[in-house]
UniProtKB/TrEMBL annotation:
Name listed for the protein in its UniProt record: Amino acid ABC transporter membrane protein 1 (PAAT family)
Molecular functions per Gene Ontology: transmembrane transporter activity
Similarity remark: Belongs to the binding-protein-dependent transport system permease family. HisMQ subfamily.
GO cellular component terms attached to this protein's record: ATP-binding cassette (ABC) transporter complex
Biological source species: Roseiarcus fermentans
Residue ranges of the TM segments: 12-45, 60-79, 91-113, 201-225
Localization per Swiss-Prot or TrEMBL: Cell inner membrane; Cell membrane
Domain of life: Bacteria
All residue ranges annotated as the ABC transmembrane type-1 domain in the record: 22-222
SUPFAM superfamilies in alphabetical order: MetI-like
NCBIfam families to which the protein is assigned, alphabetical: HEQRo_perm_3TM (TIGR01726)
Length: 238
């Protein structure tokens, strides 16, 4: 089969399907990164809170999901969440099966994995804040919420951006594992196309090119965001 026809946008071409799969990959990765940011922030807070129980729970979470294979986490979230929902529904009298959509399960799986790493990024970013700034805020009577808005959150985000950029690339790659749930992301579309046309090399090279393009573009966007976030720091240093 002609390669140009395979990747074309006309009848029998897989161009649109591959682009749609790439879009789904970006969407599920972005949602996973956001879910991971929420989880990571909570875990980082638990480890910084000084509470032994909360700190131990945060450390256990991070150790567990860093140590497990990512594919196992995907299966655990995909099948486990459906099992839990079905079991809970039976307790209130519903006798049917409740399945979790592949997109939701995939984003949760990526988020659970990413959150275990983001926790350390946020914790390190918080510890990088000059303590004198926090002490000065307390000395002038600034309440905790206002201090969080004006001092902690902006600086944590600034210091965390390089690490978050690296974790975005990890989330982008981990999203390929979600193909086992049947979600039509880039890897799944490549697999289906390869099986349908008996041209595996062409489709996997096409998938490689799209993954590389997404990586290069999004890395550049993170670089721009990091440059803007640290612009004031460079001026002070200069």
């Amino acid at each position: 089969m002609d390669i140009l026809k395979i990747f074309g946008f006309g009848e029998g071409g897989w161009g649109l399907a591959l682009l749609a799969g790439a879009g789904m990959t970006l969407l599920v990765s972005a949602c996973g990164l956001l879910i991971g940011a929420v989880i990571g922030a909570l875990v980082a807070w638990s480890r910084l809170s000084g509470n032994r129980l909360a700190g131990a729970a945060g450390e256990a979470y991070a150790a567990l999901f860093r140590g497990l294979p990512e594919l196992l986490v995907v299966y655990f979230v995909y099948f486990g969440s459906s099992t839990l929902l079905t079991t809970g529904a039976k307790l209130v009298g519903y006798d049917g099966f409740i399945g979790v959509p592949s997109f939701v399960a995939g984003a949760l799986a990526v988020g659970v994995i990413s959150g275990s790493y983001q926790a350390e990024v946020f914790r390190a970013a918080y510890l990088a804040i000059v303590k004198g700034e926090l002490e000065a805020a307390v000395s002038v009577g600034m309440d905790r919420w206002l201090m969080f808005q004006r001092i902690i959150a902006p600086q944590v985000l600034r210091f965390a951006l390089p690490g978050l950029g690296n974790l975005w690339q990890v989330a982008l790659k981990d999203s390929s594992l979600i193909s086992v749930t049947g979600l039509a992301e880039l890897m799944r579309v490549s697999q289906v196309g390869a099986a349908s046309t008996h041209q595996p090399f062409a489709f996997y090279v096409g998938g490689l090119v799209l993954y590389l393009a997404m990586t290069l573009v999004t890395t550049r966007l993170f670089d721009i965001a990091e440059a803007r976030a640290t612009r004031g720091m460079r001026r002070i240093a200069g």
